[in-house]
Amino acid sequence: MRKKSITLLILAIVVFRVFFWFMYSLIFFNGVFSPLYAIELSNPYVYYQKYIGASLLRYGQEYEINDSDISNGKIYKDNSLSFEFNYPENLDLTVLNDGHYIKFKDVGNLKEECRLEIESNGWEVGRKWLPRKRRRVMSDIKNGKIDELWYIRKNDAVFKITSSRFKNNQQEEISDDIQFMSVVFISEKNPFTFIKIADYENKCSEGVIRKIFATFRFVR
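The structure corresponding to this sequence follows.
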């Protein structure tokens, strides 16, 4: 009888732990993941580079930004989020909604303008979204969707690109322009900062985007 009670107690503990992890994963990670997906999340930069960046390097396609001209240009700095980047000298910059939007206008042609969205938290921005991103990359690799695995390099770091070229899982072949939608950068040191730069309207020229991404840096 005593042995049976101990067995039931152990079973109850196991069931409780499984249920607890199920609820924790569902609430914190917005999905159900194996506990293995949470290992090393205390350092999101290392986690990203080890489990996502390494897969992109092995299976994905690099979009080259490091040959961009970064010798000149104006500098935009966000002191509250601790980052900055360079942008072309022929553009005027306007900050909107406390830095949530940045609008560029060509000083030689005021009708030419584009707008970037800056996010530091929200949908798929932050530590808790990394298991979801990791699983999505692994799913794309497993299902042969290699054309969706584009990335950029910054020094030794790799960051995934999302692009409108891959809408409806079909890559447009009519243009060599990657047509950026967004990239999420993660700072290397604690306190870890996530910055998402998005061009959802696809109005910024490739040259502008490449210069911004090539010069983006966290500052403390």
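The longest strand covers residues 109-119.
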